[in-house]
Amino acid sequence: MDKYDVIIVGGGIIGASIAYHLATLTNRRVCLLERNQLTSGTTWHAAGLVAELRASANLTRLARYSGALYESLETAGEGLGFRRVGALTLAKNEPRAYELKKQAAMARHHKVECEWLATGEIAARFPHIETEDLVGGVYMPNDGQTNPVDTTVALARIAKANGADIVEQCNVTELVVARNKIKGVIANGERFDAEQVVLATGLWTRDLGLSVSADFPLYPAEHFYAVTEPIEATGPIVRIPDDGIYVKPDAGRLLIGSFEREAKPISTTRLPDEAFIELPFDLDHFLPYLEAGLNRIKGIQNLGIRTWFNGPESFTPDGRYMLGESPQVEQLFVAAGFNSIGIQSAGGVGKVMTEWLDKRRPPLDLWEVDVRRFYPFQNEDDYLVQRTAESLGLLYAMHWPYHQHESARGQQRSPLFEALQAQGACHGELAGWERPNWYAGPEQSPSYQYSYGRQNWFENARRECEAVRNDVALFDQSSFAKYRVTGLDACAYLNYLCTANVDVEPGQTVYCQWLNAEGGIEADVTVTRHDEQDYWVVSAAASVVRDLHWMHRHSRRYNVAIMDITQDWAVIGVMGPSARVRLQPYADVPLNDRDFPFATSQHIELAGSKVIATRLTYVGALGWELYIPRQNALAVYQTITQTPIQHAGYHAMDSLRIEKAYRHWGHDICDEDTPLEAGLGFTVDWRKSNTLGLAALTAQKKRGLQRRLILFQLADEQALMTHEEPIWSEGERVGTVTSSAYGYSVNASLAFGYVETDIGMTRKEILNKPYTIEIGDRHYEAIGHSRAVYDPDNEEIRC
Ligand SMILES: Cc1cc2nc3c(=O)[nH]c(=O)nc-3n(C[C@H](O)[C@H](O)[C@H](O)COP(=O)(O)OP(=O)(O)OC[C@H]3O[C@@H](n4cnc5c(N)ncnc54)[C@H](O)[C@@H]3O)c2cc1C
12 C-alpha to center of ligand 1: Å? Predict the structure, then answer.
């Protein structure tokens, strides 16, 4: 058999949609292999809800695309069973109402039709709904439902008509990999060669990945619904997240489904080895949800149940699905782990996967669903079982700002962990790291009390920030990603990746970005040259897998060795105007500005240990980041804290960095944003000739910009933002918030956001416009800043 361009393994709705898009949009030779029958995995038993709104702009785009695709195919007579029936999400308390109003504002920004209904309006428009305990709800008239089986079959049928091979009863038993690259698959004893393979194998994806040491962390959980006896049931889909349920009119019956607070993970080894799996129904587990559903619709309390259904669906550690190229096996792609939204996501996923396969990079910022966000520890059984029990219910729980998972914690700890707990640290989790987010006072419990207003750590973070601005504070920054690049070509290689020129004197530290071929920002790093052929790169804690993937992918032409040294070195940041005075007694070198200038690094002896001290700051202060061998870190910490020092956490760091207009990778800057749009053009050395992405950036510079990142300050001192809030100017929505934090130095909320502009508009003209930011159902006046709101001339850093 000839070689295929793309083999898709799995004939659920995701595989079918990828096949449909590849076949209709490209000339590639495509084959889909399904071991049983199309839809026989999870797809056949889905409830078929197709919502338009997700938590972010780009995932909303994908969901909306799905609805539009299904509608267009339905109109074309393909018989999907798609209808826009509308959906109503109800709030039983004020915080939920606030959350829904915020989502509604975001929805309108993305042109999703939606309206907030007060309880009386719900009662008048949908008299069959029990409204006594409600605060209100959001109505989305264009949300739809589809028949998952008919939709999948139609997508596969059209793919086939456009040249794709769709092969059922064809079990893939082996992925063929040579030198870390996929070559094809063995199915039914036969070899199928391909340039690229996509695993769209639902809850079986993790097992297939493990067979070639590729990590796809997902885990099945039992997922329940009940269908009532016939009843005259019309009206929209109703979601009641506070009760963890949805109710869907379903062909003359009602379907009541649940997202239980504590779910029931089930290993693939315990699933029957058959098509169209149905699991035993756990009535005790489901009963509270059933009752909530029956009580929500008037007059059905005693209605009988015709069908009790329990089927497996796969869930991921953070509740978001998983797309992209495996960081472990080249050209092996994944589209799985759909957390009960596979039907509504499939259309958009098929489209972006087609482009991702073509370019080997996502066509838009999809970091939140990129498989490279996961770490190998997240693919361990114990971790997944614990986390899945929690993550299913979180889909309907409140999406509190700064919310922390409770399960499977403590995966990665700094050597200072216990010592910092003794100081009152409230640890939060990022990439498995336990990081001190804030420090509780003596009478306070180091735990979160969540709200959409000022949370219980608000004043603690203020104290921490004030110490950094006025005196000194200590940060544990051990989670920062650290890589060492050595070898003959270390300089040339890093100059190929970095926007700045890193051919600097040993001891110099350079801040810059790595770009993709389109000029989008792949990483935001500092690079320190320690020796001619020895560099350290420091990057965001969350992007280790992604960065290493990027580095290895581009290292082939260079004689370099790349090491992840994150775990070997702890990092203590000592930051504030008194940092020098504080550290000098312990250091064996002078720390004055002449001997130890800003953006330099020295190997020194400090508090009895060899330490790499780098004079750099992410909080905008005089200070040093001390890189300490892990085994010495606690002793160094104990020595430098003999005299009490204010400890500061990541909430304070976030506030301090936004006051200084420092961008946050993954929020303010990502692979669809260029340094010019992000206001980071100053990192670029335009004279360089062999730098990835520089040609695209140069072309953009000539063309002019159509969007720019602006720092906003709210006039109202009390208002708080999170992210994705719409930004308005002169009656038009012009952008959304990418990240925000309260700035204690200016006593106001600060936020970054990209603003769409006309080509040729100057920054001054953009800033002179009036702005408001829409939070919930109110607009707040916002002032755009051209520079940092604190110490814009860096006088406090370079002193
Ligand atoms: C009770 C319930 C209700 C749901 N309701 C909704 C809803 O209302 N809206 C929504 O959007 N989503 C819903 N979902 C989720 C949705 O069903 C899934 O997210 C979606 O079906 C996943 O599709 P998939 O193609 O990834 O996986 P699957 O449908 O499981 O497809 C994977 C396919 O891969 C095949 N396969 C596996 N291994 C191999 C191999 N080695 N060789 C060849 N083939 C292989 C399997 O046989 C299977 O057909 C619901 C799920 C459940 C359980």
Answer: 5
Predicted pLDDT at 514: 98
Which residue stretches of the chain have pLDDT < 70? 1-2
Angle CA 552–558–561, to nearest 5: 60
What is the whole-number distance in angstroms between the Cα of residue 14 and the centre of ligand 1? 8
Cα–Cα dist 387/409, whole Å: 9
575 Cβ contact partners less than 8 Å away, ≥ 6 residues apart: 468, 472, 473, 474, 475, 617, 619, 621, 622, 623, 648
Q: Are 337 and 314 in contact (CB under 8 A)?
A: yes
Q: How far is the C-alpha of 89 from the C-alpha of 392, rounded, in Å?
A: 18
| CA atoms of 325 and 182, how far apart (whole Å) | 11
pLDDT, tens digit, for every residue of 150-163? 999 999 999 999 99
Distances in Å between the Cα of 18 and the Cα atoms of 148, 252, 331, 456, 465 are 15, 33, 15, 46, 49
Residues with Cβ within 8 Å of 562's Cβ and at least 6 positions away in sequence, in order, are: 483, 484, 485, 548, 551, 552, 555
* 3-state SS, residue 629: strand
Pocket test for ligand 1, best of 9, 32, 39, 42 (most atoms within 8 A of CB): 42
CA 675, chain centre distance (Å): 21
Cβ neighbour number for residue 169 with a 10 Å cutoff: 12
User: Of 2, 3, 8, nearest to 353 (Cα)?
Assistant: 8
Q: Helix (H, G, I), strand (E, B), or coil: what is residue 398?
A: coil
- Decide whether any atom of ligand 1 lies within 6 Å of the 172 Cβ: yes
Show the DSSP H helices in 559-693 as ranges.
Answer: 579-583, 633-640, 650-659
Verify whether ligand 1 is closer than 6 Å to residue 348 (CB atom): no
Residue pair 783/712 in contact by the 8 Å Cβ criterion? yes
β-pair type (49-50, 144-145): antiparallel
The pTM (predicted TM-score) of the whole model is 0.96
| Beta carbons within 8 Å of 190's beta carbon, 6+ residues apart | 1
Q: Measure 658 CA to ligand 1 centroid, in angstroms.
A: 42
What pLDDT does 760 receive? 84
In the sheet that holds 509-515, the strands lie side by side as 509-515, 521-531, 534-539, 481-486, 561-564
* Ligand 1 contact via 624 beta carbon (within 6 Å): no
pLDDT at 1: 54
The DSSP bridge partners found for residue 30 are 6
Pick the atom of ligand 1 nearest to 335's CA.
26
Residue 200: CB within 6 Å of ligand 1?
Answer: yes
CB-CB neighbours of 795 under 10 Å: 9
**What phi and psi, each to the nearest 5 degrees, are found at residue 34?**
-125, 130
In short, whether 313's Cβ falls inside 6 Å of ligand 1 is: yes
Residue 723, helix vs strand vs coil: coil
Pair 434, 77: CB distance under 8 Å = no
Q: 485-495 burial, b for 16+ CB within 10 Å, e for fewer?
A: bbbebbbbbbb
Residue whose CA is at the smallest distance from ligand 1 atom 38: 201
Query: How many Å lie between the centroid of ligand 1 and the Cα of residue 359?
Result: 26
Closest CA to 665 of 508, 546, 492: 546
Contact 323 CB / ligand 1 (< 6 Å): no
In ligand 1, the atom with minimum distance to the C-alpha of 336 is 26
> Angle between the 13-25 and 342-359 helix axes, to the nearest 10 degrees?
40
Burial (CB < 10 A; 0-12, 13-18, 19+), residue 438, is buried
Handedness of CA 78, 81, 82, 84 (dihedral sign): positive
In this prediction, residue 109 carries a pLDDT of 86
- The pLDDT tens digits for 619-678 are 999 999 999 999 999 999 999 999 999 999 999 999 999 999 999 999 999 999 999 999
Cα-to-centroid distance, 361 and ligand 1 (Å): 25
